[in-house]
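quick one, 79 residues, struct below
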Amino acid sequence: MAIQLHHINKVIVMDHRDCGAYKVILEKDFYQDPVKETAIHSEKLNELRRQIKAKYHKLEVELLLMDLDGKIEKLVSKS
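---
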């Protein structure tokens, strides 16, 4: 609907570190290992990106990961 009404061409998806939902879904807390935590978020966000692109192939999808201190990291999109 946003494409039709507002002619958007980009979607920004942002996860955050120390996410309680990830802990519940994955049954593990990756917060103590930032490298693994980043990899898990990257994997899940890239899967969402693939799903979005499959349905809306012209849409650009930007993936971000935010630290609890507000620092934002851009994640690499893996097609």
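The chain has one domain: 2-75.
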